[in-house]
Amino acid sequence: MTLDRKPVRIDPRIPWFEEVRRLLSPMAGVTDRPFREICRRFGADMGFCEFASASGLTYGGEATWKLVDTEGEEGLVGVQIFGNDPEHMATAARLLRDKRMDVLDINFGCPAKKVVKKCGGSALLADVPLLEKIVRAVIAESAVPVSAKIRTGWDADSVNYREVGLLLQELGVVWVTMHGRTRAQKFTGRADWDGIADLVGILDIPVIGNGDVVDGASYRAMVEHTRCHGVMIGRGAIGNPWIFEQMRAVDENRPVRAPDFAAMCATTCDHIRGEVALRGEKQGCLVVRKHIARTFRGYPGAAALRRRLYATTDSATMIAILREAAAAGGPPLPARHDTEPIREDAR
Ligand SMILES: Cc1cc2nc3c(=O)[nH]c(=O)nc-3n(C[C@H](O)[C@H](O)[C@H](O)COP(=O)(O)O)c2cc1C
Prior knowledge:
Blueprint: E1 22-24, H1 33-41, E2 46-48, E3 52-53, H2 54-58, H3 62-67, E4 76-82, H4 86-95, E5 103-108, H5 113-116, H6 128-141, E6 146-153, H7 161-171, E7 176-182, H8 193-202, E8 207-210, H9 216-226, E9 230-233, H10 243-251, H11 261-279, H12 281-287, H13 289-295, H14 302-310, H15 315-327
Parallel strand pairs: 1-2, 1-9, 2-4, 3-4, 4-5, 5-6, 6-7, 7-8, 8-9
Helix pairs in contact: 1-11, 4-6, 6-7, 7-8, 9-10, 11-12, 11-15, 14-15
The structure holds flavin mononucleotide.
């Protein structure tokens, strides 16, 4: 059965968004270009760069500009900026005009201390007049449509996603992504899917649901619960780009399958190659570790495999180890790949 989603008003500048259902979240330290490309290969409709500081872009920081390198990238890609200074945000939007990107997203959700301390990210949920200035400034300067990513509010006593969502819509933001937690919650507790459903109900523009979707079953559950236009995947994609294939299977009414062990090894090899090309041998090998830890979690023999892979920062050695493991045949699937639908009350 096709998932029931609320009909929405799609901005005429982004007709392609009609079909966008499965999005890779922006994640600092994770969603670099090699990983975005791998996620697209497995069915992500759109990938986001790691967030970039508007001040860093304004002052020409090389490291910040590297985060938004999308030159020649195929498929839909979003750039995300954060900051608390409307002028810097406007300048960043202007400087980004030549970038290859399909949307410019504003981060109003980051709970990290170093971002919030400078009143960026989720801190702006507690200062709606400044948030409004920022959105106006960015929209005025951006060459591409602007979207926004929010949390439900600053803390339990100041949940204001309704006010913020309606304001964003009025200002001309083309869609709103909501992570169903307050800033105070950071990543604790459960994401508030009722809040996402509520926001879907009151906005005419698309709402992208975000929080705690980790497989095909929880994807289905979130869409059924909220009727959101699409779902953004963060942690559930780390070491698990196959989640997008599982989500696509749900949308296309096909059985949801777990990836096989050899495919996991082969994808990890590709990922290593991509990171090494981007960052050089050592850094490239190191950055894939956080994915490896998750990819093979729960497999019998995973700890030994991980130890061997972590013992080296030579990509050829890592690839040889993975090929050997794949050739030895896959161990039985661990329980986390159970594809039975997760009941709402069990998530
Ligand atoms: C390592 C990491 C880095 C993140 N970086 C960003 C970021 O740059 N921009 C952003 O909007 N959210 C960022 N997030 C939040 C995620 O995009 C997402 O909203 C959050 O993890 C909840 O979704 P999930 O349950 O699917 O992980 C980050 C999360 C993690 C775990």
